[in-house]
């Protein structure tokens, strides 16, 4: 699982020596480290000519397979062009990965830099004083996220799932417009599982690339003969909507208590605060989206329709 995300608030320390990097003929100066994960890091860089700042994602590749995974992320960034999905400014590889001779390569992705950081950062700041989001902002941001997800799910010729939707993978512009990022987990949405070996392989990939507290129940225990589809993302959207109301995924709370996230997810346990500024209809919408049985879980069009209906209903009441 790639837990990195482009977190702009949590600084991982200053880089004292100003490293310069040349990417496809453009020179960038590294300003500071923004975050890091197991095999990748994100740095704030500046174009030496234009002085414009970007986020540089470096992915360390220890094998040919690692290179293929990094190239897959680059390819998804290039072909998924939508206002609500992060833009790839440019990219390149340096070095050559060959595990036999202990060599490594690096993939470099130049991405837009969002000063506000992520939705996760935004909610963390609000949670300090229980400064709940305004209902109008909840509807607007959530529906914009849904439209970006719809673009993935409606993509032709084959539907695409993000597979790691979470608040830390949603950047916010200065106007609080959401931008989906971290496309390294993207995959064909519909997967036919034929046997225990297929099931274990997908389960292992999900454990590595899909954040546990936003992961759909069918990815915790993949059945030997089944079809997995884009509704894995719908579950994650339900966790995001819950977090927009109460600052964290319902299963972040389970994890922090030290209880089993696995059991809570597959049982469909959702606990809502007793004291809340939000209407019960919000909870009903979250329950609809967080349907344990993927066959009964709505597709993205129904999620958008139900959310718009609730927005219109509340607007008329007000």
UniProtKB/TrEMBL annotation:
Enzyme class: transferase
Catalytic activity: L-threonyl-[protein] + ATP = O-phospho-L-threonyl-[protein] + ADP + H(+); L-seryl-[protein] + ATP = O-phospho-L-seryl-[protein] + ADP + H(+)
Classification via SMART domains: S_TKc
UniProt keyword Nucleotide-binding, yes or no: yes
Ranges where the Protein kinase domain occurs: 28-310
This enzyme's EC code(s): 2.7.11.1
Keyword tags: ATP-binding, Kinase, Nucleotide-binding, Serine/threonine-protein kinase, Transferase
Gene Ontology MF term list: ATP binding; protein serine/threonine kinase activity
Cellular component, GO annotation: Golgi apparatus
Residues reported in the UniProt entry to bind ATP: 57
PANTHER family (UniProt xref): SERINE/THREONINE-PROTEIN KINASE 16 (PTHR45998), SERINE_THREONINE-PROTEIN KINASE 16 (PTHR45998:SF2)
The family this protein is said to belong to: Belongs to the protein kinase superfamily.
Protein name: non-specific serine/threonine protein kinase
Organism encoding this protein: Phaedon cochleariae
